Amino acid sequence: MLSNEVVVFAFFLLLALVVGWIYFSSQSARTTRQQIHRIAEQHTIISTDEHARALCLAVHQLYPLVHAGVDFMIKRDGPDKPAYLAEWYASAPKPSPEQLEAALSRIANKDLAALRRAEYPSVGDQLDAAYKARHGDTSAQEHVDAKIREVKEKYQKPGESSY
Q1: Does 163 have pLDDT greater than 60?
Q2: Which end of the chain is less enclosed by CB atoms within 10 A, N or C?
Q3: What sign does the CA torsion over 28, 34, 37, 38 have?
Q4: How far apart, in whole angstroms, are the C-alpha atoms of residue 59 and residue 72?
Q5: What's the gap between Cα 40 and its chain centre?
Q6: Counting runs of H as helices and runs of E as strands, what totals does the chain give?
Q7: Element (H, E) at 102
Q8: Whose CA is closest to 69, among 81, 52, 82?
Q9: Dihedrals phi, psi of 86, to nearest 5 degrees
């Protein structure tokens, strides 16, 4: 039979293992709750602030595998203050302000191109007008050109002059 000392030792060893397991489980749950809170906070900022959303897109353009709330934090110090990249947890180097500005510029130009594309005359209409113009009837081409000019003026690129 086992001696009382062995039984007591086994009991305390088992108790220590259970307490250790409970401690590490609670720490893991605490870390998970904190991470969920950070992700929810980022979701709120990104969904309600257009600049924060653009900043998040710029970071994703530079590093497609990083995630807001996990790898970086975007913060806003007040309703009148712009959002900024506050914390960086990812293993990749934190993007410089110049890199972020370049990415933001590319995003703005893509948005601008999409807006223009949505309002331009269709390719078919443009080709039809070009065909008619080659055969002497320039009225359709003038109409298409006026519509394109109107769209370009409405959605002007930075540094682009009016036509």
Answers
A1: no
A2: N
A3: negative
A4: 9
A5: 14
A6: 5, 2
A7: helix 97-119
A8: 52
A9: -90, -45
Tokens of 17: 């293992």
Q: Look at residue 159 in the predicted model and tell me its pLDDT.
A: 61
Q: Classify the phi-psi angles of 96: left when phi > 0, otherwise alpha if psi is within -120 to 50, otherwise beta.
A: beta
pLDDT for 119 equals: 86
C-beta separation of 86 from 97 below 8 A: no
Express each pLDDT in 114-149 by its tens digit: 778 888 999 999 999 999 999 999 999 999 999 999
What tokens does 138 get? Answer: 């320039």
What b/e readout covers 126-153, taking b as 16+ CB neighbours within 10 angstroms? beebeeebeeeeeebbeebbebbeebbe
What's the pLDDT tens digit per position in 4-29? 888 889 899 999 999 999 999 888 89
